Amino acid sequence: MKGRFRNPPINELIIGAYFEPPVIALRSEHIGLLWSRLRHEFPVVKQRKPLGIVEPPPRAVLTISEEFLVMPRFWFVSKDKVHLIQVQKNAFLLNWR
Predict the structure, then answer these.
(1) How far apart are CA 5 and CA 23, in angstroms?
(2) pTM above threshold 0.90
(3) What is the DSSP-derived secondary structure letter of residue 89?
(4) Cis-peptide into 57, omega within 30 deg
(5) Which residues does 94 contact at the CB level (< 8 Å), separation at least 6?
(6) Which of 57, 52, 58 lies closest to 91, judged by CA?
(7) For a tag site, which of 31, 38, 61, 93 has the least CB within 10 Å?
(8) Could you give the 3-state DSSP secondary structure of residue 85?
(9) Which of 20, 17, 18 is nearest to 57 (CA)?
(10) Chain segment 2-32, per-residue pLDDT in tens
(11) H or E element at residue 20
(12) Distance in angstroms between the alpha carbons of the first and the last residue of the chain
């Protein structure tokens, strides 16, 4: 049964997982490979500021390195704009709008 509300009690639901420690090895190239598998159903990709702070592990040497540049959060938006997949170094989230 599918219902419609004039003023729905919620308009978006999110389920996801956060990783501790963050997946430091995750790189933009991996995101491209993921999108190549999702692009038929999620044709729109956007970059957003990461949620929270993504930090290197405490044992890491704090130097300016391309490995520790902040990678954006990536949005994969479905054709109908009802589903959204969000990926960043420390999170994987799925939104229903």
Answers:
(1) 40
(2) no
(3) T
(4) no
(5) 14, 15, 16, 83, 84, 85, 86
(6) 52
(7) 61
(8) strand
(9) 20
(10) 677 788 788 889 999 999 999 989 999 999 9
(11) none
(12) 18
Helix/strand/coil for 35: helix
Element spanning 91, H or E? strand 91-96
Distance, in Å, from the CA atom of 70 to the CA atom of 66, rounded to the nearest integer, reads: 9
Name the maximum alpha-carbon separation found in the chain: 56
Q: How many residues does the chain have?
A: 97
Here the tokens at position 14 are: 């999110």
52 confidence band (pLDDT: 50, 70, 90) = confident
DSSP label at 36?
A: H
